[in-house]
Amino acid sequence: MQKRQFLIFIFVFGIMLTTGCMQKEIPELTVTADGKEVEVQLSSYSWNGTETSVIDPVEAAEEMKTIVVSETTNLEWTISDEADSYRFSTWSGEEWIDHKEINLPIEKGRTIYMMVAEWGNGDYANYLYVIELV
Predict the structure, then answer these.
(1) What is the DSSP code (8-state) at residue 65?
(2) I want to staple 130 with a disulfide (CB 3.0 to 4.6 A). Which of 12, 30, 66, 86 is the partner?
(3) Cβ neighbours around 28 below 10 Å, total
């Protein structure tokens, strides 16, 4: 009788563990400029078999809070679940321009950033934030 209860316990625990792993949330991106947190918004993603475009990146950026920085600002980012690769882009007003790494803008003004994090299992997430160089 105890052996049967133990097997049931193991079975239920295994289902709970598997379900918990499958329910894992989309990783959170945190961007800071000289220690001040920058607003980051999820644009689109493919996660655990669900693919969606949450928002149009350029339209969403119009509604986002912009952080004002200077040329000496230290920009850093962290993500809650390390991805296998990252791509960075900025909006030129007409098209997305790809970059090898995240940098402050060269020209003064407002810049929309997109970071794409990709995991080896095919999952990805596109994150947006806006910075204004003065």
Answers:
(1) P
(2) 66
(3) 13
